[in-house]
Amino acid sequence: MEIRYYVGNPVLPQWILLPPPPLPTETEESPFVYTFSDSGLVTRKHNNGAILGYKVVRKNSRARPWSFEIFSSDTGKWSVTQVTCPGPHGGFLLNTSNPVSFNGKLHWLDLSRRVIVHDFFSHDKQARAISLPDNLKCLPAFTIKNTPCGKMICTTSQGYFVLIDVGFIKEVNSYNVRVWRLKSDSWSWDHALEINMASVGLGPSCVPMAIDIEVIYLWDLQSKCFVACNLRTLAKSYGARKVGTPVNSNPFETRETVYKEDDFRSEHLSFLSHFVPSLQVLPTTLRKPKMIYI
Questions:
Q1: DSSP letter at 93?
Q2: In what order do the strands lie in the sheet with 36-45?
Q3: Residues 69-108: pLDDT tens digits?
Q4: Residue 234 — left, alpha, or beta (φ > 0 → left; ψ -120 to 50 → alpha)?
Q5: Contact predicate 195/231, CB 8 Å
């Protein structure tokens, strides 16, 4: 099967077809298995926000040290580079194909509950491993049934890489959302925000997805729609109910409607997510939001 990669601007729209990645060689573990998998896109920006260059990154999940196949907009070619990762086993990622891209770096979560970071515009051949905040290291890596509790979501906000974790409050049948911000100058965590969701009028059926300044975005498990909540004014906006995908696992039973957004609640392991939902309507009391395209 031929693999094609396009890099595009969805606003204009303009799309560029990249040269195909090189085929695996006979010296690899198996000439019939393509071991490089999609990882992400990193960009280099000017101070004014203009894109100066980009790289498409593919990771060989079997290789130790880590092996990356990279397409560079500067050279117009694919190349392979190897990177070592701290730790006795070199890091085992929960998901190689869903890192968070920020400031030319890709961020992954590994099984030892660290954030693995590598700068693809540097000449460094070693990835950096950042331990989670102390309050999170002992948390179990599973969710509480039918709630977002136990989830750990990573994204970007206000020029920072941020981590969002969700903890259950049994006494009020609600949960807290804590936001941790990574300070790139010291590679340490800053506890930026803590929200009791009951105090803003949101119940345990709402799964946090992303946060941007004073607006938190959630997925409503019951109404099957996105929600935006202004944490300062408590104004809320509900998007239109999404149309799910009908699934008929048993021909003798009623067809079940599946929503991919529900997976953010049902995953058993903590995971990375770089996601800002597109809402049809935002609260009129909010300032005009910056548009983010993914």
A1: B
A2: 36-45, 51-60, 66-72, 77-83
A3: 999 999 999 999 999 888 766 666 666 667 889 899 999 8
A4: left
A5: yes
